[in-house]
Amino acid sequence: MTVKSLSDEDKLPIKQVIKAISKTMDDVLRVVDAMDLGRTEVRADGVYRTYNNGDTVKISSGNFAKKRVEKKRIKLF
Questions:
Q1: What share of the chain is helix, strand, coil (3-state, %, to 5)?
Q2: Which of 13, 15, 43, 75 places its Cα 20 to 30 Å from the Cα of 21?
């Protein structure tokens, strides 16, 4: 099913959305790994980037404690 307008987005099956996002993420991660750009990870004390060779670099420091999300609605567009 193709979404042609914003009013149609709620009619798209959630399984199809999840499958499309997962496939795209796999493609993105494959390119990132091939270029050795590293994976970004948010921890409680900062943001870190881990490269293929195992080196970890702290990019930013701060307080990134886990927060609860009250609304679980996802807007795709």
A1: 35, 20, 45
A2: 43
| Euclidean distance between CA atoms 12 and 68, whole angstroms | 26
Q: Rounded to whole angstroms, how far apart are CA atoms 60 and 5?
A: 39
Would you kindly state where each structural domain of the chain is located, as residue ranges?
A: 12-60
Region 20-43 average pLDDT: 85
| pLDDT confidence band for 29 (50 / 70 / 90) | confident
For residues 64 and 43, is the Cβ–Cβ distance under 8 A?
Answer: yes
Residue 61, number of CB atoms within 10 A of its CB = 10
Tell me the pTM: 0.50
Backbone angles phi, psi at 43, to 5 degrees: -115, 175
